[in-house]
Amino acid sequence: AVVGKSALQNHGVFDVLNVSDGGIFVRSDQPLEVGEEVKFTLELEAIKKTLDMTGVVIRRGQFAGSAGFAIEFNRLNPAYKRILHEFVNQHVTE
After folding, report:
1. Max Cα separation, the chain?
2. How many angstroms from the chain centroid is the CA of residue 79?
3. Are 39 and 70 in contact (CB under 8 A)?
4. What's the pLDDT band for 94 if we cut at 50, 70, 90?
5. Rg (CA), the chain
6. Helical H runs in 12-93?
7. Nearest Cα to 55, choosing from 44, 70, 67, 43?
8. CB-CB contact of 72 with 55 (8 Å)
């Protein structure tokens, strides 16, 4: 299920399929290269705020049957960390 959207600078807008305290997984038929640093915004349906983030692509592969790639957050602002932690605790089902 899509939990939000992420606009990656110079790459377009992607559906976010998974969110953790440490990163996101986005759906894409053309995943970015592992190791690529990205600036992106994160809009989660449950949060009425657009988060400006930076991260690095750590994995290409599948999530719940969809192709895409994982971005690990870096230099995460403490307020965002709290927002994401609350979101994950409320919305993630194992």
Report:
1. 33
2. 16
3. no
4. very low
5. 12
6. 78-91
7. 70
8. yes
For 79: left if phi > 0, alpha if psi spans -120 to 50, otherwise beta; the answer is: alpha
pLDDT at 93: 56
Give the pair of three-digit tokens for residue 86. 């609350």
Burial 7-33 (b: 16+ CB within 10 A, else e): ebeebeebbbbbbeebbbbbbbeebbe
Instruction: Express each pLDDT in 33-82 by its tens digit.
Output: 999 999 999 999 888 889 999 999 999 999 999 999 999 999 899 999 99
Cα dihedral 67→1→89→78 (10° resolution):
60
